[in-house]
Amino acid sequence: MPLLDYVLQEPSYGWKCEKGILIKPTNKQIFTEFFSRLNVFKDRKNWLPFFSWLKVLCLIPFFFVFVFQFFNVWTVAAAFVYSMIIMGTHGTIWHHRYCTHGAYRFKNNFWRFFTQNLTINVIPEEIYVVSHHVHHAKSDQPGDPYNASAGFLYCFLADVNHQPIAKNLNKADYSRLTSLMKHTGVKPNTYTQYLKWGSIVNPNRAILSWVLNWSFWYLAFYLIGGHALACTLFGAAGFWAVGVRTFNYEGHGKGEDKRKEGTDHNTKDMSINQIWPGIVAGEWHNNHHLYPKSARSGFKPHQVDIAWYYILLMHKLGAISSVKDSKKDFYAKYYLPQQQLKKELVRI
C-alpha cells in the first residue's frame, strides 16, 4: 500500500465506506472530532493542531485592537495589502511551491530561511506539506483531506480533523515521511520522539521559531509605524489565517463541477482557476493541478502571478539556483492550440 494511503491520521468517521464511497460526516461529527483533536490533556500528540489554532487565537486580539483603536483609511489599506497579497503570496511561494512541490531550489540555507520568514509565522509546514501531497494524490476522492464534496466545514477544519500525520507509523515509514520534509529545513524528531509527540517537528523548536518570528516582526512593524502598524498587520495576519482555510472549498467548486472549457484545462479533478486568488496570490488552482511542480502557475497573459515574480527575481539575483517552469509546455499543449482554434472559428 502506498505511503500516502495511510500517512494521515484517519478521522473517527473515516474516509470512505465499505463500498469506497466518500463519507460525508454531519456538522456534529466534524465539531466533535475537531475539539477532540485539540484536546492536549487527553493526548499530548494533539499538540501540533492545538498549536496551529493557538497562533490564530493569539492574533485575534490584535485584530480587535486594529478595528477599535487604529481603524482608518491607511491602516485598512495596509491590512488589505498584507492579508490579501503579502500573506497569500508568501503562502504560495513557501508552503505551496517550495515546501510541498519543490518547484525551485535555494542556493543556500540563508535564502531558504529568509524566504520562510518573510511574513508572520502562522501555518506549521508539517500540517500543510504532508497533507497536500495526499491532496494531489487523491484530489476530490475519498482520502483527500479537504474534499470539497464533503462540505464547507470538512474543508475549513481540515487542518485539525484530516491533515495531521498518523501517530502509529513504523520506523521505515516514518523515515520515508521525513524525506518529504527534508528540503524545508524542518529538523525532524527522532523516531522515539515521534512516538512521544506524534509529529515530525519537535514542539520546542516550533515554539522557539514562533516566538522569534513574531518578536522580530512586531519590532520591525513598531519601528516603522508604531503600535498602530504592528497591531494592524498582526490582525491582518489573523484575518488571513482564518480566510485561507476556505480556499480549497472554493478552489474545487464547492463540491460541484464548475470547470469552464478553455479556462480549466485539467480535467482529472474539480479544481478551477479563479481570478481573485490568482491575482492576489498567484494561485491559479486548475493550472497548478495541471502542473503541480511548476514554480509558475499563471501561464496565460492575463494570469498575474506575484509568487512567480518573487521566485524569478530571486533566481535572477542568484538566491535561487534552479527553477521549474511549465509555461512552454502549457502553451504547446493547451494555449496555442486554443488560440488557433479561435482563429479558425473566426474565419468560418
Counting DSSP H or I runs of 4 or more residues, the number of helices is: 15
Identify the overall geometry. Answer: globular
Q: Major β-sheet, in short?
A: 2 strands, antiparallel
Q: Can you list the strand order of the major beta sheet? A: 1-2
Helix content: 55-70%
> Uncertain regions: pLDDT < 50 for 5+ in a row?
none
Number of domains: 1
Order of helices and strands: HHHEHHHHHHHHHHHEH
What proportion strand? under 5%
SS-derived structural category:
mainly alpha
Distance between the termini: 53 Å
Number of strands: 2
If you compute it from the alpha carbons, what radius of gyration comes out, rounded to the nearest whole angstrom? 21 Å
Overall pLDDT: 96
Family: Belongs to the fatty acid desaturase type 2 family.
InterPro entries: Acyl-CoA_DS, FA_desaturase_dom
Domain Fatty acid desaturase: 74-309
Membrane topology: Multi-pass membrane protein
Tell me what the structure shows.
It is a single chain. The protein is an all-alpha fold. It has one domain. 57% of the residues lie in helices and 2% in strands. The protein has 15 helices and 2 strands. It has helices spanning 27-37, 47-69, 73-100, 109-116, 125-137, 152-156, 158-161, 171-179, 191-197, 203-243, 247-251, 275-281, 285-290, 306-317, 327-347; strands at 104-106, 320-323. A two-stranded antiparallel sheet has the order 1-2. Helix 2 packs across helix 10 (203-243), helix 3 packs across helix 10 and helix 3 (73-100) crosses helix 14. 42% of the residues are buried. The model has no long low-confidence stretch (mean pLDDT 96).
